[in-house]
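Field reference: sequence -> structure
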Amino acid sequence: MFLGRTILIATKHEKEKVIAPILEKELGVKCVVSSNFDTDELGTFSGEVERELDPLETARLKCLKALATTDYDLAIASEGSFGPHPTMFFSHADDEILLVVDKLNELEIVVRFLTTETNFNGMEVTSKKELLDFAKATQFPSHGLILKRAKDNLQDMKKGITDWESLQQHFLYLTEKYKTAYVETDMRAMYNPYRMNFIEKVAEKLAAKMKSECPTCNTPGFAITSVVEGLPCELCGAPTRSIKSYIYSCEKCDFSKIENFPDGKTKENPMHCDACNP
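Structure field:
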């Protein structure tokens, strides 16, 4: 379905550097970058434009807006979200979505993964030492930083800082003018190798999903859509919260199949049993 086609990558932050090689190798497509659509119109991490839609809807709109400026019918977009991890409350997380929109075949394929491998952070700084400590902790200068007057004040903001001289000069300017400054990580992919590396991993997952076809209708994107817990405890036989089955589904023809004991285990260790180890 994809062999020989052109896929439009909707980005202005150089994500094609990690996405294109994977898709071209795995799917036999030709990747091009959208130059007529500014993805920042739908939201920026630094706050100039608030994201009004949820991440999936934003990625979808990126694809559709990029396609509207061309004659192509196949597009891919990425959307990242950053904040506290949903279960590891003291850790920050990168929640990354990659979406393919195929208008020719009326098909969407999406993957979504979460990682704690991120330097996402920000803080108010009033001294040079605080600034330099923050910079070192967030992998500067290989990872870019942003300086502005305050967390929610974009006045005199400078983005994409990647050298010590520029960082200290703008910090001095802000503190002389406002007595304080706010420093945060620049989460745009081209300034954040942590994020770029994760997008590459998610792109590999997407390529694998695009190559997975439904056994009934051969539509790409046949993948795990839900899991069933209840792997029995090997000691008492009670169902545990460990995964017992994967459910694969086709979004086109609604065919589904169940894969039991996907990890090769038919019983769970009692240490993971709520009855044996409450």
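Note: The chain has a mean pLDDT of 94.
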